[in-house]
């Protein structure tokens, strides 16, 4: 099969198209023909080993798992002898988790993994764009216990996590303020944001508005100015963070009634099934900026790394 292999840590050209052997499913696994995957911020950070601590978990000089890619949509071509949930021909979508491997024509996954039948009203490309942003946003919004009529500000609202967070917060009944650049204002209005702030035209940190939840999806928000925008028992979600913000967050949680939530987003099949249900009900839709072919993944990485994508960048593998 064809696969994109990360030969070492570095710029996008370390990703090489290679021909490798097809995987063989174990007794509890399904083998999926990958029709689509996506390139997300986690992918290029892993490719670059950024932060450096990535090397401690994935390999010091190069990733131990050379085929990157954490999300997929495709069709089952074979199943292991013990598989009971799925059958050959089922169309799936989901996350590959720490095993990665979606930058390839085939991928084996455990049947009890974070996988589910693909939403009937989505293409493979649309479905592959859902798990990264959707699962991340849902994880943090649930940890923040988002409630109806609460006010939430989503910073970095036009990215994969941001577009999912806006739609999910609206589903939970919150009043949503989205912060983005000029070119994405109308898109976020179409996703249901109650108010959209163009950060190039307005400094939202100087507003007198107070929020129950502030969700920084991209890690670029100034911590102290945004902390002042919280209500007395408000919550800041650090969807992407660094050591400085982690320290500030811990201190804030210890010394005040305000709370900071951060860390890795857990992936659960129940959350994926909820996303599928909401998609089929029309509550959530995918946002796709660009599509590339498998061999164009280095170009997709270059584009995503610039940090200006709208929603998701999808890879058509077939």
Automatic annotation (TrEMBL):
Lineage: Bacteria, Bacillati, Bacillota, Bacilli, Bacillales
Molecular function terms from GO: oxidoreductase activity
InterPro entries the record matches: ADH-like_N, Chloroplast_QOR, ER, GroES-like_sf, NAD(P)-bd_dom_sf
One Pfam family this sequence matches: ADH_N
Identification of the protein by name: NAD(P)-dependent alcohol dehydrogenase
UniProt domain Enoyl reductase (ER): residue ranges: 10-315
